[in-house]
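pls design
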């Protein structure tokens, strides 16, 4: 993981995409076919991007499927790597 503290994809939507589209949270939620509170949770980093949400965003923003899901995975992996945890020894494959 080369990136230092990658942003939550909701942050990108909130700070870059919505202003560029000149849409309110409610307008964008309606366009996506989701509730305003659910979109708000995503925008504030309290909910993650699911596969279904990735497809909605990809269609709405004319982007390739998987883009927002990869951003979420990168964010989640970096966050998980920052937490203390027990390491797991590698297994040896039988020859």
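designed seq:
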């Amino acid at each position: 993981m080369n990136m230092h503290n990658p942003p939550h994809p909701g942050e990108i939507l909130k700070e870059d995409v919505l202003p560029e589209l000149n849409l309110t949270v409610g307008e964008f939620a309606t366009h996506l076919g989701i509730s305003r509170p659910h979109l708000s949770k995503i925008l504030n980093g309290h909910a993650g991007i699911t596969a279904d949400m990735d497809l909605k965003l990809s269609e709405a923003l004319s982007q390739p499927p998987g883009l927002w899901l990869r951003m979420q995975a990168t964010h989640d992996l970096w966050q998980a790597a920052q937490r203390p945890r027990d390491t797991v020894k590698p297994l040896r494959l039988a020859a």
